[in-house]
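Retro notes - structure team

What went well: the batch runner handled both jobs without manual restarts.
What didn't: labels got mixed up in the shared folder, which is why I'm recording both outputs here explicitly, each with its sequence directly above its tokens.

Job 1
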Amino acid sequence: MFCPFCRNPDSRVIDSRTSDDGLAIRRRRQCPQCNGRFSTTETASLLVIKRSGVIEAFSRDKVVSGVKKACQGRPVTEADLMKLAQRVEETVRQSGASQIDANDIGLAVLDPLRDLDEVAYLRFASVYQAFDSLQDFEAAIGQLRTENRSENRPDQEFRE
């Protein structure tokens, strides 16, 4: 790390702390040559491999903007979307890989979005999973109904 004051290529760490979300480390450094102090932030890089083969850094903002379209007109706040993006990033980072396919990020969005808003989930899934027919929607709705029944009545048998 070059000193931002004198460009000396060496510095020593005075203090290290994790950030609020635990995904970054803030280090306070001092230059041995000019005694200037400065801070650095270190994060583990997470790269996304897009369908075109292009590789770019993971961005929570891109997750939010992709999901925001599915949530238009729904009672979902910006804070809800930020929490969803954080959950997606945590899920993706748990894989331990430094590079992940964009497709895997889309899959990681589905569960938290279903928990957040079922209509938005159906909208996102219909595009992401390329629903071709009404049967695809019916199957997804049927799966949601089944999951809701098991969550709402775990000790009772559900009858139609």
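Job 2
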Amino acid sequence: MVDSIKKPVFEEMRPGVKVPAKETILTPRFYTTDFDEMAKMDISANEDELKAILEEFRADYNRHHFVRNEEFEQSWDHIDGETRRLFVEFLERSCTAEFSGFLLYKELGRRLKDKNPTLSEIFTLMSRDEARHSGFLNKALSDFNLTLDLGFLTKSRKYTFFKPKFIFYATYLSEKIGYWRYITIYRHLEAHPENRIYPIFRFFENWCQDENRHGDFFDAIMRSQPQFLNDWKARLWCRFFLLSVFATMYLNDVQRAGFYRSIGLDAREYDKYVIEKTNETSARVFPVILNVETPEFYDRLEICVRNNEKLTAIANSNAPKFVRFFQKLPYYISNGWQFLRLYLIKPINTASLEGTIR
């Protein structure tokens, strides 16, 4: 009994290969898009900037960065219990998200090769970065005697179809919020090295610069397609994607607050800072951003946190399936209502911020 408490047991497909986490609305998603529409895009309105970004990717600043050193060569059994479970979950979610980016970018690079060589090469080089990230994370999992079968993930995961403009909104935000997540953890642990429970965090400073460059590319490609940013529909969709990304991160991280405590962070305060900085960064390209400083924003997210706790308790109960469905229904409705009210909070017009965006 003591051993089972100390070392959590993970379900395995075969020895050492972890069963992937169950897909839910909050888990990392795999994407596909309209490759023909992407190939036909005219990028001439911002081609010089895109070619400059291509040169950045060709320089491959991190080609020697993701090399494990002697600090990894030790037993990690002292990371045990709930901390071990949450850390493995963090590595798995991060690996899955990076691998999702690799698959999308690799396919875009392949499909656009003969039709849009500049975009094709950029996507191919970004897939190189994401492959390094996911491989490094999967190798970290092996320190805990587990790995993910990424080939199995490729075939078994459901793929969400997004039109190109939605791919741009979603991936821009994913890359930029990734930057702020990684750099915030890195800076915190530089100031508090006693909380650096595992050496992967030392790699986050250079790592997040890959995320930042990827985000800058999606910023540039959206500005080459002004129709994606300049009409009333774009304003509505930008609000939707900002809210979706922020809410998903907040609900996930509060649910896993123990992981952040293990590295000396408060999950809520960490998320509020990352949301504030990502929202501020998004003002450089999006026509609107969210008003995340109104108390209502986090008050409503906290209602969703409590709803999700109730939903988890119901899911883990022994009640019949149809009973659990009706028990969950009020909380699903409440979450939908909170999301709608959050969406209806008056956004901030970024034109009014001109000259104040850092």
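One thing worth noting from job 2: The mean pLDDT is 92.
We'll revisit the folder naming next retro.
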